[in-house]
Specification:
Low-confidence stretches: none
Distance between the termini: 68 Å
Radius of gyration: 48 Å
Shape: rod-shaped
Length: 427
């Protein structure tokens, strides 16, 4: 049960005081008439009569603000309930023009210098620690949300759908386009040829090639191998052939590396350019690449890997963020402190931040003006009239009762002045 509003008892007490004053004036007026209004009673009668008029007039004025006096259909009474819609519109426009005027807000923001204040605030370790702790709590809540099975399925479905819609052929074409820009593909070819040359120049490779040649000759031409062995050992022949082949290959690779216009380079460039064009324009090749992509996406091993990867990442993040000495939170805290220090040291950074904040505030205020104005007006119009009247009366009714007190006293004083004027005119 809600506690009683103390303003209600105060208002009721003041109303009783005002009524008591009115009754006292009525009693004084009656007594003055009963005593013939002679002498001092004439002054009492004049004071009480005028005081009653003032009290009744102010009572009528105060009551007419909130309701109809004595429930009589008197024009221009119950002003607040009847004018609720007009008051709502006027209040909404007042808030819009005085509190949401972009230029007025921007002037205050410029004087406030939000970037400097933000820098000082962030540079204090307790503030950075508090903000990092808040971010850690938010991140944990986000991870709890993402750990829901329905959310996990939705995320996985979204990722898979995006992968299915991904144009892999076009992406491969773009990557190859980047590779061929500024002759990067030639540098890639040079690197590959250099590695091949190093491989051919290896003694181990030559020995393997020699052994392979010897095995092939013995298998395919056994009689020739036997005959040759009488003249010269076939192993020596294999070593010689392997060495010659390696030297021939090295010479050819050296020629390719030293000649920018070598036919092999030209063939390589034409092939790569043609394949790049096919990736971008050939529907059949694009379809084959897409089919390969779909098979890769649907493969159970890939699905299991993706799901397991997310679970591991999720668990690692949760384990770290659950600790008070979280690495991520500490990293964020350090960077927030560095950001605050940087803002404090760098006037250009402060100016840039202030400009961005001012521009954002101006855009936000412009968007909010009409929405907030409509919201205030609609909210006030939707209020129950009796509730609105009750709240307003509780807020200002105490002061209005003092108006009744003052009206009673001022009316009485005016009555005394008029009586004194009447007496003076008689003499």
């Amino acid at each position: 049960m809600a506690p009683a509003d103390p303003r209600r008892a105060q208002l009721r007490r003041l109303k009783l005081y005002a009524l008591a004053m009115l009754l006292a004036m009525l009693a004084g007026f009656v007594l003055s008439h009963l005593n013939g209004e002679h002498g001092a009673w004439a002054w009492v009668g004049a004071f009480c009569e005028a005081a009653m008029v003032g009290a009744l007039a102010d009572w009528f004025a105060v009551v007419a603000l909130f309701r109809r006096p004595l429930n009589l259909p008197i024009p221009h009474t119950a002003i607040i309930p009847r004018s609720k819609a007009r008051i709502a519109d006027s209040l909404a426009l007042f808030v819009r023009d005085h509190f949401l005027e972009p230029e007025a807000l921007l002037v205050k923001l410029r004087v406030f210098d939000p970037a400097t204040r933000l820098g000082h605030w962030l540079a204090q370790p307790p503030q950075a620690r508090m903000l990092a702790g808040m971010a850690r709590g938010w991140a944990l809540q986000a991870l709890d949300l993402l750990d829901e099975s329905a959310v996990r399925r939705a995320i996985q479905g979204f990722v898979v759908e995006q992968l299915r819609q991904w144009n892999a052929a076009a992406t491969a074409g773009d990557l190859l386009g980047l590779l061929t820009a500024d002759d990067r593909h030639q540098r890639v070819l040079d690197e590959g040829l250099t590695r091949i040359a190093g491989w051919l120049d290896s003694e181990t490779v030559r020995q393997r090639a020699s052994a392979l040649i010897v095995r092939y000759i013995r298998k395919e031409w056994p009689k020739l191998a036997s005959t040759v062995d009488w003249v010269k050992p076939i192993d020596e022949i294999g070593d010689s052939l392997a060495g010659r082949m390696a030297r021939a290959g090295l010479d050819e690779l050296q020629a390719i590396l030293s000649e920018p216009g070598h036919p092999l380079r030209q063939d390589y460039a034409r092939w790569l350019g043609g394949y790049l064009q096919r990736l971008r324009e050939d529907p059949a090749l694009a379809a084959r690449v897409d089919a390969l992509k779909q098979q890769l996406i649907d493969h159970p091993a890939v699905q299991d890997y993706v799901q397991g990867l997310w679970q591991r990442i999720h668990q690692q993040l949760r384990d770290d963020l659950s600790r008070e000495d979280s690495v991520l939170a500490a990293h964020l805290e350090r960077n927030l402190g560095k950001l605050g220090a940087s803002i404090g040291r760098d006037p250009a950074l402060r100016d840039a931040l202030n400009q961005h904040m001012l521009a954002g505030a101006e855009r936000l205020t412009t968007r909010l003006r009409s929405g907030v104005t409509t919201h205030i007006a609609q909210t006030l119009k939707a209020w129950d009239e009796r509730k609105l009247v009750e709240q307003l009366e509780l807020s200002v009714g105490r002061d209005l009762q003092y108006i009744r007190f003052n009206g009673t006293l001022v009316g009485g004083l005016i009555g005394l002045l008029l009586h004194a004027l009447t007496v003076w005119l008689r003499f």
